[in-house]
């Protein structure tokens, strides 16, 4: 008896590999002496997952456009989070590696940021972790609770109270993911506009 076919095994193995890669990236990212390396690794890892997500969405594009709001909004939130995550990483990486190259001989490593920009960078790093966990969480909900979500907003109001509460929770979570993704992108864009005189002490 075959419990998992080859395509499912490949998908599970791929996702597990990405999970391990993210964990390694985060462990390196949150150490001051390897912070820049962590951003670099995370950028490559996330580029890989973006390609994976785009491929998955492309394969399902015909069915996705016919999804009810209960499933479409979570999928959209995952896609937006992945895209904004990638753009934020590019902005931060470009800024940090450019500054490291310019000031490494003068200030050495790790790069010394002013308190304001260090706090901003720490917020971005925290959001990188949060926006890694939440999309996985909502994706797990969609996969395992599809019958409880596969209907529109108006029909949701006619469901039992417990179903309405669950439906509302998932919708709110999807909106929160999009909101946090926008916040992350705004911070990354602001961080990328650092002026040298404000950066180093």
Describe the structure in brief.
With 201 residues, the protein is an all-alpha fold. It has 8 helices and no strands. The longest helix has 39 residues, at 69-107.
Which labels suit this protein?
mainly alpha; 8 helices
Q: Overview of this structure, please?
A:
- With 201 residues, this protein is mostly helical.
- It has one domain (6-199).
- The chain has helices at residues 6-29, 35-59, 61-64, 69-107, 115-144, 153-156, 161-191, 196-199.
- Keywords: Membrane, Transmembrane, Transmembrane helix.
- The chain crosses the membrane at residues 12-30, 37-58, 64-92, 126-144, 164-186.
Biggest sheet, in brief?
none
Number of structural domains: 1
- Helix run count: 8
SSE string: HHHHHHHH
In angstroms, what separates the terminal alpha carbons? 65 Å
| Rg from Cα | 20 Å
- Share in β-strands: under 5%
Q: Indicate the overall shape.
A: globular
Q: What would the average pLDDT be, to the nearest integer?
A: 79
Residue share in helices? over 70%
Beta strands, count: 0
**Broad structural category:** mainly alpha
Give the low-pLDDT segments: none
